[in-house]
Please model this.
Amino acid sequence: MSTLIRGGTVIKGSGDTVIEGGAVVIRDGRIADVLDIRGADPWGADRDFAGDVIDASGCVVMPGLINSHTHGVTPGALFPSAAPALTEERWMGNLDRHLLAGTTTVLSLCGFASMDDVREADRRHAVHVRGATTHLPHCLQAAGMADGQGLTAEARELTVERMLLDGAVAIGELGGGQTLGGGGQDLVYIPAAIHKVSGILITIDQARRIKEAVLGRFIDAAALNVVALAEAAKEAGLAEAFTATQLAKLVTDSVMPSFVPAIEGIREGVQAAAKFGVPAIVHSASATAGVLRELMFELDGGEATVIAAHANHPSHTPDEARELAVLGRKMGWPAEASVFDLLHRKHTVTTREHWDLLLREPDLISVIGTDYGHDGDHDELISAVQDIAAFGHRSLAGAVAMATSAVAGLIPGIAPASGRLEAGCIADVVVARADDLRDVRFVLVEGVCVVRDGQLTPEAHR
Ligand SMILES: [Zn+2]
Model:
């Protein structure tokens, strides 16, 4: 089975090489050749090429994107809080969205799934699905206290060591908004607790304001601000239903039980990463800034790769985010920026200030991912690539590298022999319209066309 993709601008993924009017030849699932055919087309009008020919005129041809920060792409427990598993329709649907937007490899950071769960998703869908693990005592304890309803008996028995032997490629996500009093608490658990007692539904912003009045931005029981709490309660329509004491207790009871073990779980996971020689991926947010700083100094000079996920998390102020990322750079911690939904959808993140501040510096952010957004409705990774180039933070080739070769380089098991358009590499290839990359026309996975003219082909599902 051979394919020729011709007439487009080829971005090889390494961060610099761009070939205007290039051609990519694919044979038996691998890249056979990448050619500059301007003025000298060896195939004439394609007459001599035996195989599928894709006309990429007006398009960019790039490696399939590699997203190292996803959730909800497998069966098994969801998030670091081990929430109930998504239905098959939902996780397959999430993988469809990734694929239609040019992502051909995802790393699931729902660390309580088993590798059987990961392999099922990988087998059923054309997207390469990789797994990570947080099967550690404190992480398990934190999940159980925040939620834990998705934990199977099997998952409770698993260990990081067994998961790594079974093919997991990283330890993470260590910590999360659900276990650390972050966005997951604002979105789900605090509103649910309030609704259960009072029947009143509050918004994510109202929940955040109430939580910050009780525990501050750094999740500290001593931070209670009674005046701010009274105002937040009134604004959320809760002044009649709760006294300040009741509301403070409800928020504290929702957030704090998982908080201490979750912080311990981050330490435990980073230590395991150093021991087993795999990358750890830690949740960077205002609530974890303290422990991350401590770990940066403790590990000083160590070999462990620790990736600060969503270094642009909006719970940091922009300056705090930058300071932590600058320290991380000095201490050898790569940083990932998550697009969340900050570009278009804006359900959960409405500012792009952190994003621009961190990306503006040439070497503060190593890779980009999506994270989950509200109910999986995140902006697409390819949108983030386009945005980074459009705002001049990187060249287009540089932006593509942040979602391809740089990710493959940072997490060795995620996509070996992928992330570049070079002879011998796996033929995961994306063809997207040059004037708007979000219009993904073709996607090939291992040389098989799984998106054609913007639509999934039957080969996308197996
Ligand atoms: Zn996170």
Summary: The longest strand covers residues 2-11. The chain has a mean pLDDT of 95. Residues 173, 176, 283, 309-310 surround zinc ion (CB under 6 Å).
